[in-house]
Design goal:
With 370 residues, this protein is α+β, with helices and mostly antiparallel strands. The chain has helices at residues 3-6, 14-32, 35-41, 75-88, 90-109, 112-119, 237-269, 281-310, 315-339, 351-358; strands at residues 130-133, 149-153, 156-167, 174-181, 185-192, 198-202, 213-224, 271-272, 275-276. Strand 2 (149-153) and strand 3 form a beta hairpin.
Length: 370
């Protein structure tokens, strides 16, 4: 590896800085203020996400010929957006970015005709739900060892299997189902809502409660041959998984930053034995460690995104970022609760909610493709 490949620039462009300011305001005003209420409700109406359409995140990469802005694909900008949105709320951020994940996967793997067919409806002023179904209900799930199968039958494919933790699994108009074709390997199939044999069952988890999640059952679901992304071209599953891991890491960085921003004023204002608890070394060191680990998470995530943007191989960097963020996100969530003492166990403070959300970092696969 050359020295040039080891370097990456942390300087944001003027456009990225302006976009961050806009997204940060949105996250604070629209996500953070509603996060507790929507976490309690455990399922956010799709209409809520219409507010996010003004950010234009889904429209930006769609080619102009298909109704989008035609902006160059930027994993770094997408990582920044995921981080800033998750600072408001990680689960709502995941919901906002799920259609963009579908769009990016189609841009990476679809033919021009498929891009026009599936992306044009998503180039809208309102929020349109589209999603990716990769995960399966298996304790040792591995993305490259899929139990969901697709069998060719003339000019059609028959898909069978079960997918879990599918964001907007019930509501999405378009679902990219990743299945294994015997003798060929993994492939992506766009399945439309209401297709016969497709059933969605709502799921509720410890965290990410504010966004709709479902188990999808595909029983002899029939799709046309042109629903297979890329036609005869091999589906790049590893790229999808790696980009999604970078996106999930960015979400965890934003949520972990929220924890740090909350505990610092708390430990400085909380008085015990006549002085702020921040004066205790054990407390001060724990806060410092959160900052140290958070900076490491952010740098690893940005490095992987930078390599993806430069067109360099980024598989190793995405994997290492995922390993680090999965471990440290849980640690930061735990320490955030610990620093609040008894208040950390109370729902009047949001840290317990962020702790629950951060634990999803090591579980999610294919959910936030940057």
């Amino acid at each position: 590896m050359s020295n040039a490949e080891l370097l990456f620039d942390l300087t944001l462009t003027e456009e990225q800085s302006m976009t961050r300011e806009s997204i940060q305001r949105f996250a604070a005003n629209e996500l953070r203020s509603k996060s507790r209420e929507l976490d309690e409700a455990a399922n956010t109406e799709l209409a809520f996400f219409n507010k996010s359409a003004d950010l234009g995140l889904s429209i930006l990469p769609i080619p102009e010929d298909f109704g989008g802005a035609g902006m160059p694909r930027s994993p770094i900008s997408n990582v920044l957006a995921a981080e800033d949105l998750a600072h408001g709320d990680m689960s709502l951020a995941l919901g906002i970015l799920t259609p963009l994940s579908f769009i990016n996967a189609v841009l990476d793997n679809g033919t021009e005709a498929q891009q026009e067919k599936y992306l044009s409806p998503l180039a809208s002023d309102s929020f349109k739900a589209a999603t990716i179904a990769l995960m399966e209900p298996k304790a040792t799930f591995e993305p490259t060892e899929l139990a969901t199968t697709a069998k060719k039958d003339g000019d059609k494919y028959i898909i069978n299997g079960t997918k879990s933790m599918v964001v907007f699994g019930e509501s999405a108009e378009l679902i990219l189902v990743i299945a294994n074709i015997e003798g060929e390997g993994p492939a992506g199939f766009v399945v439309e809502k209401g297709t016969e044999g497709l059933a969605a069952t709502p799921e509720r988890f410890m965290g990410l409660r504010a966004v709709e999640k479902s188990t999808l059952t595909l029983e002899n679901v029939v799709v046309a041959a042109d629903a297979k992304l890329g036609g005869d071209k091999a589906f790049d599953l590893q790229r999808l998984v790696d980009l999604a891991r970078i996106g999930t890491c960015a979400l965890s960085v934003g949520a972990a930053q929220g924890v740090l921003d909350y505990v610092i004023p708390y430990v400085n204002e909380r008085i015990a034995f006549g002085e702020p608890i921040a004066y205790r070394q054990s407390v001060a060191f724990m806060v410092a460690n959160i900052r140290i680990e958070l900076d490491g998470m952010r740098l690893m995530t940005w490095r992987a995104a930078s390599r993806a943007e430069q067109g360099l191989d980024f598989h190793k960097e995405a994997y290492l970022a995922r390993v680090l963020c999965a471990e440290k996100a849980m640690e930061i969530g735990t320490n955030g609760v610990q620093l609040l003492g008894g208040h950390g166990f109370c729902r009047e403070h949001p840290v317990e909610m962020w702790y629950r959300n951060l634990r999803a970092t090591g579980i999610l696969e294919g959910a936030c493709v940057v």
